[in-house]
Amino acid sequence: MHITLERQIKKYFTTNNQFPPGWEAFIQAISDTYTHFDEDRKLIERSLEVSSQELNERYQKLSSSLTIEKELQEKLRLEKESVEKKVEQRTIDLNKEAARLHASLNSLNIGLIMTDVNFNILIINPSAYKILSTTENKLSENSNISQIISFFSGGTKILSKIGECVVKKTPEAIGEFSLASRTLYLSVAPIITSEKAQSGESNVIGTVILIQDITEKKALERSKDEFFSIASHELRTPLTAIRGNIAMIQTYYIDKLQDPELREMLSDVHKSSVRLINIVNDFLDTSRLEMGRMEFKKETFDIIPLIQEVIKEYLTTGSIKKLSIQLEEPHEKIPFVVGDKERVKQVLINLLGNALKFTSVGGVTLHVEANDKSVVIFVVDTGRGIPIETQSLLFRKFQQAGSNLFTRDGVQGTGLGLYISKMMIEGMHGKIWLASSEIGKGTTFAFNLPKEENASV
Amino acid sequence: MKFEQKKYSEAKGWEVFSQAPLREAPQLVLVFGGRQLLEEGKEYETVVSWYPQSHIIWCSTAGEIIDTQVSDDSLVLTAIHFEKTTLAFTEADITQTDQSETVGKQLSEKFTKEGLVHVMVFSDGLHVNGTALVKGILANLPSSISVTGGLVGDGPNFKKTLVGLDKKPSEGKVVLIGFYGESLKVGYGSFGGWDPFGPERIITKAKDNVLYELDQQPALALYKKYLGEQAAGLPSSGLLFPLALRLHTQRGDEEVVRTLLAINEEEQSMTFAGDMPEGTPAKLMKANFERLIDGAEKAAEMSSGPFGVANPQLAILISCIGRKLVLKERIEEELEAVRSKLGNAALTGFYSYGEICPTAASEKQCQLHNQTMTITAFTEN
Fold first, then answer.
1. Total CB pairs under 8 A between chain A and B
2. Which side of chain A, N or C, has fewer Cβ within a 10 Å radius?
């Protein structure tokens, strides 16, 4: 029986649990109800306790995760702030950099076009706009390089050069092109990143195409050349008159000039006029060669008699300087050469003249060889030799080894001789070169000329 | 509609509950009784001899209801004569829980749909997933047909539940009654009255109606923690803490209550009367006496209210065993509450392992419920 019920019954009814007959079942039912009530109460109390424990645990977990979240958020905020600051500073730096770059690009008087690796145009500077934009050709920064290329005839060459530049990763000269009435010079350079490229990818991220308007430069060159040519031509006529008249005086009126000093002066005037004529001739030749106005005849001739003829002309000069001049007897029969005989003679005169000019002891020897395709003529002297550092400049305009145009070292010349010789030989499909030179021992120049076709060696 | 009601107990034999004996042959006889009595075939021949032309349905229970009385180990009999309504019956066997939906489909498929107004289900209480069974039954019924019923019981034992149609009742049976005719009006209502409490948990491991884990913790351990010394009474003591599930459905979130049928110590699993979908939020529920009794009253109101039938002649009460385990000596209070709303209607029914009824009186689509008082009220014009 339930303890509470037992106590209550004792209190109110009887001391020895004696109930009237039939009451036992009734009392038992009440007792069961008491017991069940207790069980229910216990269960509810327990469930509330367990669930409040659970809720408490969840609360603890939640609040600790809230704290962690707060800390994380604070950390995140600080990081974000620092990143923002960095970004801000970097943006300022980049803006400055961009301004500097833009100013540089804008102030360039060379046209500059920057493209990405697919040749889409990223930047065109004002000079490029100015150079390329004509009434028909409109440009924008959103176009592809192919649009620009379409302006030029021979555009495929431009494209292939740009492609080459990307592959080779080296700057390439594209060449001269004319656009409308102007001449442009194009070159291209790759843009290479320092970032390591992923496998299979190139570190070339684009190209820079430079466009120079060389129209004025070209015109200037041309007018200079023309000036040279005209001036020289105009100088030669009076000079020829001076030289001719003096020669006539020396030939026909020499007996009237009894004063040796007067004779001497007249001789000087003659020499100077000859020299001046030579200089003017050199200038005229140079000018004609440069402008491509010199024509070369295609003659087939034996070079040996020509060499002998030139040697003969110099025999007097040689004997005055006590120098020997000779042609080595060839070991074999020399085939005929193809060229302009007169020009070849001029080259021979120049080379032999130079050789004598720079030789004070010994002499000059010429010899001739034939090979598969050409005949080679060597001019060997025993002169003072050419310093190695000036050897590479020999065939340039106004160059003389070891001196400049105005300090002649006592040796007269314009510095155009070798330059003219080179252009002439090349105009006849030959080559001229310095074969060897040693200081104090001598120098050997050589040139070749194509030999007569079907000629047997 | 006419009927007579009787009750059999070993102490008192047969007692008559109705005022006058039924003169016409009833089409339907419902016998709800203690599992042992039914298994022994007690009074089986007697009942058959009383109603030789009638369809007799036998159901084992977790408590028999007649009028406002609840008894165990008795037989309560209601013989019903319908004047205009006709009936059809289908039955099927089920041995595996996972056959539930298929069996449900087979059963409802057999009905002629024309004139059908209502279906009642009496199903085995242990070998069935109630949710799947309901889904199967509904699959082959027009949406205008209402379905009510329940999963029969076995006291607080959860060992063996029996159902029979015109035969001695046996395990693994599901019987459906189809009601035909325009003159029959059916009202229904279902209400729980349990309070969710404690933290919300998520079903993290479950398969069909077997629950393994809540919040990644073994569910069985949680129940034992709450039950304390009453854990020894599992699975029946588990009914003291049903689970409220917040199901995500197309109509929005719907709260359903799930009650425990069995436990498996080895697997640490718990089998419930309906589906336990993974990811569903769940809360433990506890009883509140007043609210349980109020709940029964509300169910009665629903069945006889504007959407139900006014002045019903007969009401079949299917109430959850969980309620009986909680209310104990006070269990009859919920029947008195029902009676207060249903006037003179004859009351019969049983304590069950699961109830089937639409969620609202205005709806037809039924669901499996647990821990509720579910009432089906009839009247014939």
1. 36
2. C
